[in-house]
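REVIEWER CHECKLIST
Item 1: Sequence provided? yes
Item 2: Single chain? yes
Item 3: Sequence as submitted:
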Amino acid sequence: MSELHKGSCLCGNVHFETRGPLRGVVYCHCSQCRKQSGHHYAATNVQDDCIDISGQENISWYEASEFARRGFCKHCGSVLFWKHNDLDYISVMAGAFDNPTNLKGDIHIFVADKGDYYEIDDGLPQYEKSSSGIVVAPPKH
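Item 4: Structure as written out by the authors:
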């Protein structure tokens, strides 16, 4: 996927535009993602130099661990980003993009931590913690 993609938060105070390839959607079922979003994360990612964000003053960053932070709109609460401190890409919540996205699901991670109220039955690979290709941060203690 190498086209231009645009998105925003619910209230429109934060807008973003990505250029270049987007990773397939990773579904994260860890307790941090569940507690922040109310379900699980569905995120793609893009290189830092391939995203333009307007309204950055409206983003609150929560340091979920010493390795990563989570960005959300401080007005409407929309969960937008996950950013590892040491990597040159940012995860963007798939639901924040305007349609059409042409995104496809890739994998499920931290399925051992998923909520007990749903099943994962889409046939995508599932990992108890993370896969070797997905960098995540250890939970905050």
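Item 5: Key structural point noted by reviewer: The radius of gyration is 14 Å.
Item 6: Recommendation: ____
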